[in-house]
Predict the 3D structure of the following.
Amino acid sequence: MDSKEYSSKSEVVNDLIRQARKQQVQIDLIRAKLDKSEASGFTDLSKEQILKQSKASLNG
C-alpha cells in the first residue's frame, strides 16, 4: 500500500487471491500435461524421429 498502487488493504488481499488462483490454474494445466505424457508411455524413437513424426502430424 505504500506505493499507492492500492487504495485499500482489501484490494491488496483480493489481488493476491487473484494471482494465487491464476498460478494454481497454470500448475493444474502443467500437472495435467505431465499426467497425460506419463500415461502415454515411453518410446524407443530417436529425437529426430520424434521431431519428424510431430512435423508430419502438424502438416496433416
Observations:
- The first helix runs from residue 9 to 39.
- Residues 9-59 form one domain.
